Amino acid sequence: QVQLVESGGGIVQSGGSLRLSCAGSGMNFTEDNMAWYRVAPGKPREYVAVFTKSGQTMYTDSVKGRFSITRNDAKNTISLQMNSLKPEDTAVYFCNFQQYWGQGTQVTVSS
User: Fold this and answer.
1) Region of residue 63 (phi > 0: left; psi between -120 and 50: alpha; otherwise: beta)
2) pLDDT band at residue 63, thresholds of 50, 70 and 90?
3) Rounded distance, CA 48 to CA 69, Å?
4) Eight-class DSSP state of 1
């Protein structure tokens, strides 16, 4: 069965950290780009970070210097380390690989 499963969301105070993980089954993350997106209340889906097939990482401007995306090829997982979290980071975070999406994990940052 081909699926992506996120974990690691939660509630954290402003300035805190969370680490999200996305595990894939039935797919090989090294074959294409892997990305994190988020959907905040009342806003459209926003790209957050990407780990490219070639191993490069890119981030949307609002998270640069605070978030870090990594890939574990042995475990076929992708992670998003989020530091110095802000209330505006509150959203449901989704991992994406090709046409596949995870179910999302809620991140709430309180002020």
Assistant:
1) alpha
2) very high
3) 10
4) -
